[in-house]
Design brief:
Elements lengths: L1 E5 L2 E3 L20 E3 L4 H14 L2 E7 L5 H10 L3 E5 L9 H19 L4 E5 L10 H9 L3 E12 L2 E7 L4 E7 L2 E5 L11 H9 L4 E4 L1 H4 L36 H14 L1 H12 L2
Helix pairs in contact: 2-5, 3-4
C-alpha cells in the first residue's frame, strides 16, 4: 500500500500577522513547526504501512525551510518526502493549494506508482479551514471521509473507516484510492528516531524538491493569481494589558462573583467584552 501524507509547515505562534498589501501571512522572523494536527495523520499512515506493507510518502507545499518539517516526518519513519516549492505557488488560498497538491499526487503516481491512500491532519493551527483534504479529493475525484479515528484494510481494494462525531460514531466501507482527514486525537504520534534521522541524512534521494518546472501547471491557476479568496482588509487586534491575579474561591458561586466584580471594575475589559459579544 502506498500512502501519501500531507503536512504543513506553520508559524509556531498565535500572533499571526498579515501583509496589508497582499493579505498573505508574514512568515519572516516567526519560528515554524509541523502542524500538530498532522502528526496523528503521519502516525496513522505509518501504522497502516507496518500492518500491510508498502511505503509512506510525506509531502508539503511550502517555502524551502519547510524541509525541516519533512526531516521530522522522516525521523518518525516516513520512507520518502517531497517538498513542493516555487515562488509562483506563493500566496495561494486553499483552492490553489489543493490544486497544486492534487497534481503533485498525480506526479507521485507517475514517478513511484499507484497511490492507494492520501491522509491529512484534521486542520491547521494557522488557518483552521479544514478545506484542503476535501478539495484535494474533489480535484482527484476520489472518495473522502473526515474526522477518521480508525482504519481497517479489508482487501479487494477496500477499507473500513470509523469516524467519531460529537454525538455518535459512523462507519464507512470505501473503495481505494481515497482521501481521509484524520481526527486530531485519533492516535498518539510516535517519537522521532535517531536511526531514522541518520538514515534520511545519509540518503540524499530521500527528500526530493519539485517546483513548477516539474509540475508544469498554468501559472494563472496557482499562487495569488489562482486564488479567488482574498483578504480584503486586516485590522490590528487591540492590545489588552495582562495582569495576573490568583484567587482561590470557596465554591463555584464565589468564583463567579469574583470574576464579575473584576469585569465591572475594568473599563477596558468591559468594552472589549461588549464588542466581542454584541459587536458594539
Amino acid at each position: 500500500m502506498r500512502i501519501a501524507v500531507g503536512i504543513k509547515w506553520v508559524p509556531n505562534t498565535q500572533a499571526v500577522r498579515f501583509d496589508p498589501e497582499t493579505g498573505t501571512l508574514i512568515r519572516k522572523g516567526i519560528p515554524s513547526i509541523v502542524n500538530p494536527h498532522d502528526l496523528p495523520a503521519i502516525e496513522m499512515a505509518l501504522r497502516l504501512r507496518d500492518a500491510v506493507g508498502g511505503e509512506v510518502i510525506a509531502f508539503t507545499m511550502a517555502p524551502p525551510p519547510a524541509v525541516k518539517g519533512l526531516e521530522l516526518a522522516l525521523g518518525m519513519g516516513v520512507d520518502r518526502a517531497i517538498l513542493i516549492t516555487d515562488r509562483v505557488f506563493a500566496g495561494a488560498d486553499t483552492l490553489a493549494t489543493s490544486y497544486v497538491l492534487a497534481n503533485a499526487i498525480s506526479k507521485v503516481e507517475r514517478e513511484y506508482g499507484k497511490v492507494d491512500l492520501v491522509v491529512f491532519g484534521q486542520e491547521t493551527i494557522d488557518s483552521s479551514t479544514a478545506h484542503i483534504p476535501g478539495q484535494v479529493a474533489s480535484w482527484l475525484d476520489w472518495p473522502y471521509v473526515y474526522y477518521v479515528k480508525d482504519i481497517q484494510v479489508l482487501g479487494d481494494g477496500r477499507i473500513r473507516v470509523v469516524r467519531e462525531l460529537e454525538d455518535y460514531i459512523e462507519e464507512y466501507e470505501i473503495e481505494l484510492p481515497a482521501v481521509l482527514g484524520i481526527a486530531v486525537r485519533a492516535l498518539k504520534p510516535r517519537p522521532v528516531s535517531l536511526y531514522n534521522k541518520l538514515r534520511a541524512k545519509l540518503n540524499k534521494d530521500t527528500i526530493v524538491v519539485w517546483g513548477n518546472s516539474e509540475l508544469k501547471l498554468d501559472p494563472r491557476c496557482v499562487g495569488l493569481k489562482g486564488s479567488p479568496t482574498i483578504v480584503a482588509k486586516t485590522i490590528d487586534m487591540p492590545e489588552v494589558p495582562r495582569k495576573k491575579e490568583v484567587y482561590k474561591p470557596r465554591d463555584p458561586r464565589d468564583a463567579a462573583r469574583w470574576i464579575v466584580s473584576k469585569i465591572v471594575e475594568d473599563e477596558k475589559l468591559r468594552e472589549l467584552l461588549v464588542k466581542k459579544l454584541w459587536g458594539g
